[in-house]
Design brief:
The protein has 17 helices and nine strands. The protein has a five-stranded parallel beta sheet with strand order 2-5-6-1-7, with helices on both faces. It has 372 residues and is α/β, with parallel strands linked by helices. The protein is globular and about 65 Å long. The protein is 51% helix and 13% strand. The protein folds into three domains: 19-95 and 128-214, Rossmann fold (3-Layer(aba) Sandwich); 220-290, Helicase, Ruva Protein, domain 3 (Orthogonal Bundle), CATH 1.10.8; 301-371, Arc Repressor Mutant, subunit A, CATH 1.10.10.
Amino acid sequence: MNPFSYGTIVKEPYFFDREEECRRIIDTLSGGNNLVLFAPRRFGKTSLVFRAIEELEKKGFICIYFDFMPVYSRESFIEAYSKAIISKQGNFQKAVKALAKFVKGISPKLVFNQAGNPEFSINFIENKINEKTLGEILDLPENLASAGKRFIVVLDEFQEINKLNGENFEKLFRSKIQHHKNVNYLFLGSRTHLLNDMFNNRGRAFYNAAMLMQIDSLPQKETIDFLIDRFASSGIILEKSLALFLIEQAGNIPYYIQLLAAEVWQYVVNSTQKSDKELISLCAQKIVDLKSDYYYELYDKQSVYQKKLLKALVISGENIFSSSYTKQFRLTAASTTQKALAGLIEAGIVEKTEGRYFISDPFFKRFIIYYA
């Protein structure tokens, strides 16, 4: 079995390090404070959060995980959010009765299928969702926690709240949770620039609503040790210098490190070829080739200036608005660069961390180098 995991929630033995970050999440939430977790795409924040959830549940907290990404309307939010809350209750029938008591605008229903498993659904009493019903749903965790049990609500892709009537919903949400005494919230998402604006912009409802925490790349030494140990579990020797080369080829991003390592492991197992830099580069190129249709389409969608900027970012992502950067890469006005960059960030193609801009997918970066 491949000793590396990607594309799903990563748990032990595939999950490693992040002990300090995990402890801070646990201490902040269990200490009664809300938290915002910032991280670029594929940095493993969701896996980190699920690791923290495991520890919090051991401490007796009821942890509710809710993903805003599939939500497309207020109705879909109410249905999905109530299901997420009810599913974490020990007594479904009692929980459904409590839901009917606390939220007057819906009619909850619990039935049992042929396998004897409970199935939960709701009907909306009114044709249009009003602020009162929405507010009652937002207060539901607090009302259920009033019996002495504390709740932790994890809101993934929280920036997608903008789809639900924009800032009006945002203001309602903030007005409710600021009064919750037995519930704490963890906010996270993949569009970090939007999430950052929500909690750092004085004009937004969630300004200063939670402590801020950013996670960066994994520490190099621990990542090298992890790679060496995981390859060794299959009897494959990976030298330290090769582990470092693999990390560099994957952009030092956790998801892509596991992806490339899995590809290298599979190649070595199938061919009995010894791992070396040439093999790692070959596997990296194989990943690019497999995704080439997607990369061609993604690159083709960008404007001429954005393509020019992407080629510049392949080389350097520092001081990109400076006159020297503009001159070096034959760009035009800084305002034009800023506009093009904003579009690339909005599309998730470019991320920013520690004052440096970088192409979020290292294999798309490799595609630009060799094919664009």
